[in-house]
């Protein structure tokens, strides 16, 4: 039914195109909503945060399921030892846990669960912004139709020259920069860029990216040179410390040798001058 409806819409548009072709060429453009979303930083950051929540929800469900499986295993092993009333009580506990887990799954991942609600909240502002921008582009550039390439309408071929996704992204980025502008100079620069054509803006963007790339290369080269200097200094310092320690060790060894020599001399008394064998008496 859905496919039939889409084919009918396509046929109506085709007939309309043929009917006005004699007056002027029909101008058709398209956007790729998925491409636009992937290149909006606010959306990608929020999507990452939402994915973190999803993983935590899945872990909670997995933990609960393992607990239920363990309860079932314990009941199976202990069934022969339990009375009928205890078995029924344990089965009721398991049933309650299963119902709670299913409700948790529904609350998180159901059609009206947290995941669907938060995704809608995440994407709706950007979709509204894209819709308004598309309306403006269609009016200014005289487009007759603008489709969403990522939607359900089947596009067997789409020339890249008709893709206005980058124009939409440009407008979104301009709006974000206008909100972030803090002084008149920044606002004037944004207004100047707004008046450029897509080709001119692309050329300016490429020049800015080239300048930024060269800046990054210079900073990287400076950082590499700094690392090299620091490495050389570290080697020289290590060599100096080693030589200094060697000198200190040699000096300490000489002191120890002198001290040992003095101690040895003090423990051995010098030989005597000769004792008297008699009283030296005469007559």
How is this fold's topology laid out?
Blueprint: H1 2-21, E1 28-31, H2 33-38, H3 41-78, H4 84-109, H5 114-141, E2 145-148, H6 165-180, H7 184-194, H8 198-267
Parallel strand pairs: 1-2
Helix pairs in contact: 3-4, 3-5, 5-6, 6-7
* Uncertain regions spanning at least 5 consecutive residues: 2-8, 16-22, 274-283
- Summarize the biggest pleated sheet: 2 strands, parallel
Number of helices: 8
Distance between the termini: 161 Å
Give the SSE order as H and E letters.
Answer: HEHHHHEHHH
Quick check: average pLDDT?
80
Please tally the β strands and state the result. Answer: 2
Q: Strands across the major sheet, in which order? A: 1-2
Walkthrough of the structure:
- The chain has a two-stranded parallel sheet with strand order 1-2.
- It contains 8 helices and 2 strands, in the order αβααααβααα.
- Helix 3 packs antiparallel against helix 4 (84-109).
- With 283 residues, the chain is mainly alpha-helical.
Briefly say what this structure is.
By secondary structure, the chain is mostly helical. The chain has helices at residues 2-21, 33-38, 41-78, 84-109, 114-141, 165-180, 184-194, 198-267; strands spanning 28-31, 145-148. A two-stranded parallel sheet has the order 1-2.
């Amino acid at each position: 039914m859905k496919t039939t409806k889409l084919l009918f819409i396509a046929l109506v548009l085709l007939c309309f195109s043929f009917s006005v072709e004699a007056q002027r060429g029909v101008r058709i453009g398209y956007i790729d909503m998925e491409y636009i979303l992937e290149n909006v930083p606010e959306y990608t950051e929020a999507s990452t945060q939402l994915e973190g929540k999803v993983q935590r929800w899945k872990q909670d469900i997995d933990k609960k399921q393992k607990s239920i499986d363990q309860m079932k295993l314990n009941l199976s092993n202990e069934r022969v030892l339990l009375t009928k009333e205890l078995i029924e009580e344990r089965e009721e506990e398991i049933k309650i846990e299963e119902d709670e887990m299913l409700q948790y799954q529904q609350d998180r991942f159901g059609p009206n669960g947290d995941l669907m609600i938060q995704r809608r909240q995440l994407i709706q502002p950007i979709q509204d912004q894209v819709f308004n921008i598309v309306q403006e582009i269609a009016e200014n550039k005289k487009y007759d139709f603008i489709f969403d390439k990522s939607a359900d309408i089947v596009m067997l071929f789409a020339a890249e020259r008709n893709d206005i996704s980058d124009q939409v992204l440009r407008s979104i980025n301009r709006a974000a920069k206008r909100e972030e502008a803090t002084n008149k100079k920044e606002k004037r620069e944004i207004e100047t860029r707004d008046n450029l054509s897509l080709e001119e803006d692309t050329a300016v963007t490429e020049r800015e990216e080239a300048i930024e790339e060269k800046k990054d290369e210079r900073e990287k080269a400076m950082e590499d040179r700094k690392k090299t200097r620091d490495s050389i200094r570290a080697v020289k310092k290590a060599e100096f410390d080693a030589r200094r320690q060697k000198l200190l060790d040699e000096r300490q060894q000489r002191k120890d040798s002198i001290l040992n020599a003095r101690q040895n001399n003090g423990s051995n008394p010098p030989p005597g001058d000769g004792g008297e064998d008699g009283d030296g008496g005469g007559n």
